[in-house]
Amino acid sequence: MNGLTHVSSAFQATRAAGRAALMPYFTLGFPDPQSSLKIIESIAGSGADLIELGIPFSDPLADGPTIQHSTQIALQQGTTVARCLELTAELRSRGVSQPLILMGYINPILAFGVERFVAEAAGAGADGFIVPDLPFEEAAVMEAACQSHQRALIFMLAPTSTPERVAAVAKRAAGFVYLVSLIGITGARSALPPDLAGFVERVRDQTPVPLAVGFGVSTPAQAQAVGSLADGVIVGSALIDAIEGTEDWPHAAADFVGELRSALEAPVRN
Amino acid sequence: MTPSPLPSKFGSFGGQYVPETLMPALSELETAYLELRVDAEFQAELERLLTTYAGRPTPISHARRLTEKFSGAQIYLKREDLAHSGAHKINNTLGQALLARRIGKRRIVAETGAGQHGVAAATACALLDLECVVYMGTVDIARQAPNVLRMRLLGAEVRPVATGSQTLKDAINEAIRDWVTNVRDTHYLLGSVLGPHPYPTIVREFQSVIGREARAQIISQAGRLPDQCIACVGGGSNAIGLFHAFREDKQVAFVGVEAGGEGISSGKHAARFADPTKGRPGVLHGTYTYVLQDADGQISDTHSIAAGLDYPAVGPEHALLRELGRATYTSVTDDQALEAFQLLSRMEGILPALESAHAVAEAVRRAPSMRPDQILLVNLSGRGDKDLDTVTDALGMGHELGAQEATEAS
To answer: Does the beta-carbon distance from B21 to A183 stay under 8 Å?
Structure first.
């Protein structure tokens, strides 16, 4: 399947339904490969519109303690890039149908080979990629590989991005643009940044591509607020926080994702 | 006229592999640097601090007894150990702290391995009234305790990093995370020729004072250029700092010395160029260079007795110098560095930093097969006071001393 159309049709469907798309993040191989499959299946079955899957890296410098911890455990469980692609294919064979976006740092992708990685990930059923340490200046090789395999290389923008950078990303955007909600690293926060609406608007003026907001979105109420501004809501650390310490992780994941989804479907009170 | 931007790559190496949040800060830093590089007032202030505060120029010393012992090449030492705060690191921290002040960033974050860069950063921040936070791995905190105390006394906050290998690599991860979070008011004072562009270039420019001085001094003292310049290479700022002024002198060979740890075959080392099973081009901390990693691209743990060399990536310009054949890279083990430490202490009255002892070890390995009219110029990048615990432990001297005191007391 063409990953670009798979991603854009997911956003078209949620737009038609009058709500933002829900994109939970989970780390492949955490707490072990088989359990991560069950948790992700459970996420897929409880209201996710797209799913972001983390490929572990030893030095994840854009991530806060929650995701760092999950990727360290995943690495201890032998979750290599090759294993992540097997797990992705396994999710497809178990019937997970949402767009799957692989999130990984550039070094393991370079070690695997950029072209080979994109080709094999496409074959495994991935639709797009988020590479947090690959700004557009360095992205030409990966971008070309994605174009030839019809996958989306998702670019990120941050509140610090200059108008020139916003315009450059708008021109090259595929799938959606990932808006980093705040100045910082991933991790749950008690409140949304106050200038989020202005930031979303600033990018919206430049591109018709869907905008998904991540970093720090922690509660159903926050997801609802973000969903009223943007086309997609990405929740990662808060999902892991919500299930760690519970008895039944797939069950807890389904509960939390279900709450997020309900919040996105509820009318926004102004 | 806007000055032309600096090249972001050294051949295929270098670049800017960082989160989007930081890209505007890197561009701001480059712009500010390009302005200040040609700003006479800034250059005069840096020059004034280097001479009246940091103790520059540092001398070169002819290591006469060491030279005689090996009856080969003349060994000269560039005495960065005599720079204020005990190492070459001060050249860069004064420059970057001035730069930070000019761009209105009054909070500094820095990483440190051996503690020398942390001390130099804390020193510059005290002098220029900047807030200073230094990230340091807990393993390094334990083995470089005197430097932790020095940083605190200088008014810096030392934040322990207990993740990963708890050494320099992890300290840089945390410093970058802090910078990402506080980028609007914080400057990341990176301590070596590492990281995303423009850091490798800026740090080289601030450190190239070492080679400019040394080149003039060796011509004046020895009457000619050296045959080889030798320096230890962790990230490689003291080495680039020495080499850069000799780059057009094709007859001068460059030798970089990596940390061989317990030997390359043991796997416990930090020699990026010496171990083809693990040292391959890749990206760490924002730059594309040689990185010690496993087949899956996960960054390897490293080992060296010298905390300042205990790091899995090398500065990208070194990767290019090696590719071009302009520089060669060798490695020296922990034991060889310890021998060189003792040798220099007893024969020249200089306690070298364990990092610098690697360069001394390489010089004494090369000197015997060379002629007395040839010259080795060694960058003695720092002094060894910080390493007394490590060295005395490794040599079993602590126990000797304890036993002796016990005998005297009885």
So the answer is: yes
Q: Tally C-beta pairs within 8 A across A and B.
A: 113
Count of the separate structural domains present in chain A: 1
Instruction: Point out the catalytic residue in the list A49, A63, A127, A231.
Output: A63
User: Which residues of B make CB contacts under 8 Å with A?
Assistant: 8, 15-25, 27, 163-164, 169, 173, 176-177, 180-184, 280-286, 291, 293, 295-299
Enumerate residue ranges in chain B where pLDDT < 70. 1-4, 398-410
B357 contact partners, CB below 8 Å, separation of at least 6: B306, B337, B338, B340, B341, B344, B384
Stated pTM of the model: 0.96
> Which residues from B are below 8 Å from A132, CB to CB?
19-20
Ordered DSSP codes for B333-375: EHHHHHHHHHHHHHHHS--B-HHHHHHHHHHHHHGGGS-TT-E
Question: Which one-letter amino acid corresponds to residue A268?
Answer: V
Domain assignment of residue A270, yes or no = no
Q: Could you list the residue range(s) of the whole structural domain that residue A99 is in?
A: 3-263
Location of structure tokens 């850091």: B199
pLDDT value, residue B397: 83
Distance separating alpha carbons of residues B173 and B188, to the nearest angstrom: 12
Looking at residues A174-188, what average pLDDT do you find?
96
Residue B314, SS3? coil
Q: Is-catalytic flag, B45?
A: no
Hey, are the CB atoms on A134 and B17 less than 8 Å from each other? yes
Smallest Cα distance from B353 to chain A, Å: 29
Asked if residue A207 is part of any domain, the answer here is: yes
| A268 occurs within a structural domain | no
Give domain status of residue A180, yes or no: yes
Q: Residue A223: which CATH number? A: 3.20.20.70
pLDDT (0 to 100) of residue B86: 96
Q: Which residues pair with A25 in a beta bridge?
A: A52
Interface contact B298-A133, CB threshold 8 A = no
Structure tokens at B105: 């960033």
For A207-221, write each residue's pLDDT tens digit. 999 999 999 999 999
> What pLDDT shows up at residue B164?
82
Q: Do A57 and B298 touch (CB under 8 A)?
A: yes
Q: Which of A41, A49, A52, A120 is catalytic?
A: A52
Smallest Cα distance from A108 to chain B, Å: 4
CB A174 within 8 A of CB B35: no
pLDDT in tens, A224-255: 999 999 999 999 999 999 999 999 999 999 99
Decide if A133 and B181 are in contact by the 8 Å CB cutoff.
no
Asked if A63 is an active-site residue, the reply is yes
Q: Is B27 a catalytic residue?
A: no
Contacts of B297 in chain A (CB under 8 A): 57, 81, 107-112
